[in-house]
Write a structure and sequence with these properties.
44% helix; Butyryl-CoA Dehydrogenase, subunit A, domain 2; 10 strands; alpha+beta; Butyryl-Coa Dehydrogenase, subunit A, domain 1; four-stranded mixed β-sheet; 12 helices; Butyryl-CoA Dehydrogenase, subunit A, domain 3; four-stranded antiparallel β-sheet; 3 domains
């Protein structure tokens, strides 16, 4: 189906789709941290079939070919709903924009339609055991051999790698250049020979992250995204989109917390507690501030500007919101938040959310990194000195 382009008709169309296919947050209760794969795949397929997947992606690549204004309308209608789209946050929120900006036409035509349909799930492969916040310090090598790269090394904290079909992987292709200059981004097929994906189980009991090992993995040079040794520019583009997807998208992973908490407090009969009421007010205020920052970010996108430091502000506020909301959820649960029966699924979900919340201060760049970006690019503070900034990577001391 095709979504109507008229504003009024589109709003009614989006509202009807959401009412028929999504659950309101207040009816759901606590928002689950993770969604079963089959639920996410099914919902993404419904979005695509309704013409609501990739609203701003050109039609030639399988998108709706509409405007950022239509995306804003959809977000306004979706704000009360929980959408099980977290499975595709990386795929559509991060990888699709990078392919559209830096990929070849063949890459775009091959992958983007399948990503929007939900047939391809992607991950990003940046972090390594010795290169977390300093992504440019990564050491996983790609050596050219004819029309192929041979890849050896390791990535870690790779979300969704255990069910991803492809990954956006940043590799070191020239260690004689400065560390930011000798990197390249490639499309990594996760079923390639020599790839070993191993689970990292969280304290919540969920398996969301992985460590990925590469041993003589061969991929075509045609899988380059952007030019050779142009990976840092592509990585910055992806990180900027990641921060927007995590903190500033209309139905982001951090939105819609206050209404659920207020309803929970009313159901528990603690909504008149003055301290708790102040905590609920704080959550609401942070959520509103974040909503306005999100509007600013999306207005910039609508005017044709790439995501900037506003994404870092949104990510920083989003991390604060999730942590605050999780703590308030535990306070509402009271003693059950510490000890509850195995069949008390609502409280168990609240507890899992509390244990998961700190990860938001790490995902998409740590809180400290976001503050550095804001300090340098918004406040104009001097950068931290780096005596090896332009030195060849081979000359930089390593652990």
């Amino acid at each position: 189906m095709t979504a109507p382009s008229d504003d009024v008709a589109f709003r009614a169309y989006a509202a009807a789709f959401l009412a028929a296919n999504a659950t309101k947050r207040v009816d759901l209760g606590e928002v689950p941290a993770y969604v079963p794969r089959e639920v996410g795949v099914d919902f993404q397929s419904r979005l695509f079939n309704a013409g609501l997947a990739g609203l701003t992606v050109p039609g030639v690549y399988g998108g709706a070919g509409l405007t950022n204004h239509h995306l804003e309308i959809f977000n306004e209608e979706a704000v009360e709903y929980w959408l099980p789209t977290g499975l595709y946050t990386i795929t559509i929120g991060m990888c699709v924009p990078v392919l559209l900006e830096h990929g070849t036409e063949t890459q775009r035509l091959t992958h983007v339609p399948r990503m929007l349909q939900g047939e391809e799930i992607w991950c990003q492969m940046f972090s390594e055991p010795g290169a977390g916040s300093d992504v440019a310090g990564l050491t996983t090598r790609a050596v050219r051999d004819g029309d192929e790269f041979v890849v050896d090394g390791q990535k870690v904290w790779t979300s969704a790698a255990h069910y991803a079909t492809f990954g956006m992987c940043v590799l070191r292709t020239d260690p004689t250049l400065a560390k930011h200059q000798g990197l390249s981004m490639v499309i990594m097929p996760l079923d390639a020979a020599g790839i070993d994906v191993r689970p990292l189980v969280l304290m919540t009991g969920d398996h969301a992250f992985n460590e990925v090992f590469f041993a003589g993995v061969r991929i075509p040079v045609a899988n380059l995204v952007g030019g050779l040794n142009d990976g840092w520019r592509c990585a910055l583009s992806m990180l900027a989109n990641e921060r927007v997807a995590l903190g500033a998208s209309g139905n982001s992973l951090v939105s819609g917390r206050s209404d659920v908490l207020i309803q929970s407090a009313q159901a528990a009969g603690v909504n008149n507690d003055p301290v708790l009421r102040q905590e609920l007010a704080d959550v609401y205020i942070i959520e509103e501030v974040l909503r306005f920052v999100g509007l600013r970010v999306r207005a910039a996108l609508e005017s044709g500007r790439a995501p900037g430091p506003e994404g870092s502000i949104a990510k920083l506020m989003g991390s604060r919101l999730v942590t605050k909301a999780a703590a308030v959820g535990i306070a509402i649960a009271g003693p059950r938040g510490l000890a509850c029966l195995p069949d008390d699924h609502a409280t168990l979900t609240v507890r899992k959310g509390f244990l998961h919340a700190p990860s938001m201060s790490i995902a998409g760049g740590t809180t400290e990194i976001q503050r550095n970006i804001i300090g340098e690019r918004v406040l104009g503070l001097p950068k931290e000195p780096d005596p090896y900034y332009k030195a060849p990577f081979t000359d930089i001391p390593k652990n």
